[in-house]
Amino acid sequence: MVSEEIRMIAEQYDINLSKIKGSGVNGEVTLEDLEKYIREHFFPKVREERKVFGIRKVIADRLSKSYREAVHVTLNMETEIDNLIQMRKKLTEKLGEKPSYTVLMLKCIAKAIREFIEINATMEKEKIVIYDNVNINVAVDSPIGLITPVIRNVDKKNLKELLKDYADIVERAKKGSLKEKDFVGGTFTITNLGMFGVDSFTPIINPPQIAILGLNRITQKPVIKNGETKVASVMVLSLTFDHRAIDGAPAARFLERVKYYLEHPEKVFEVE
Questions:
Q1: Is the bond preceding 149 in cis, omega lying within 30 degrees of 0?
Q2: Domain Peripheral subunit-binding (PSBD): where (predicted)?
Q3: pTM over 0.70
Q4: What is the DSSP string of 172-214?
Q5: Phi, psi of 161 (to 5 degrees)
Q6: What domain range includes position 75?
Q7: What does the pLDDT read at residue 66?
Q8: Where residue 38 sits, what CATH number does that domain have?
Q9: Is 79 within 8 Å of 259 (Cβ atoms)?
């Protein structure tokens, strides 16, 4: 007989217990069986673990002593998104629906994360854990406040799948029907305040992750290129990272790559 505790946990993860091979008496599913299944199916696969030692440990210890917790450093970088706006129009014709900018940017960010995988990590005590799975938490407004459900394997999903997943978590967030499974296993977080007219801000890291990217409002302004002035649609990216786990230069290079993909969306999306 399966215990009520096991049934309740399984319900939070939408798990059909009959699909789990039990190790208990008469093949009964035990709590250990269920926990193992959850780890295998809902948590990211560890790519690498790095012991913090030497100079990095000295830096981490000193910064921790000063701040007592994650050492937040924020970088702001402006990016032009005229090409992304045009890409959105092409994708709307292809899909028959207008994809949100958040989803399009989510896909660009995931591609940049894959290429700068050290940002896809958590830090707990003296260990930095870098993950293979790009599982991105997306800040969503809900009746109980701002929450951050996760979308898994963002870099591997096509745009239709991503649109479906995003619409699902937003709808369930508004209804208050998200479950525990929707909050575990995240490796990076994005938060979008553009719809509130925010130009730049300092996002707060979602612990134990080491970085969070803030998206701001899209506005038009004159820019100078090759000695010529033109009006462009621009947006500021606000990246906050934990300086104990990653230095400013690699964080800036990651942010530059996000900027590159937002300005060259043809490297991310196919419209043929």
A1: no
A2: 1-38
A3: yes
A4: HHHHT---GGGTSS--EEEEE-GGGT-----PPP-TTBSEEEE
A5: -65, -40
A6: 44-267
A7: 44
A8: 4.10.320
A9: yes
272 falls within a domain: no
Catalytic residues: 243, 247
Could you tell me if 119 and 113 are in contact, meaning their C-beta atoms sit under 8 angstroms apart? yes
| Token pair recorded at residue 119 | 């940002």
Q: Which residues contact 118 (CB under 8 A, 6 or more apart)?
A: 130, 246, 250
Q: Residue 30, CB half-sphere, CA atoms under 13 Å: how many?
A: 8
Domains in the chain, number: 2
Contacts for 92 with CB less than 8 Å, ≥ 6 apart: 98, 99
Is 73 a domain residue? Answer: yes
Report the distance separating Cα 59 and Cα 65, nearest Å. Answer: 10
How are beta strands 188-192 and 72-80 bridged, if at all?
Answer: unpaired
**Residues 39, 133: Cα–Cα separation, whole Å:** 13
Whether 199 is in a domain gets the answer yes
Q: Please check whether residue 176 is in contact with residue 142, taking contact to mean a CB–CB distance below 8 angstroms.
A: yes
In whole angstroms, give the CA distance from residue 107 to residue 267.
Answer: 11
- CATH code of residue 92: 3.30.559.10
Q: How far apart are CA 240 and CA 248, in angstroms?
A: 10
Do 36 and 127 have their domain in common? no
- Answer whether 213's CB lies under 8 Å from 252's CB: no
pLDDT digits (tens, 9 = 90+) for 207-218: 889 999 999 999
Give me the phi and psi of 150, to 5 degrees please: -110, 145
Write out the two tokens for 114. Answer: 């894959």
CA separation for the pair 90, 266 (Å, rounded): 11
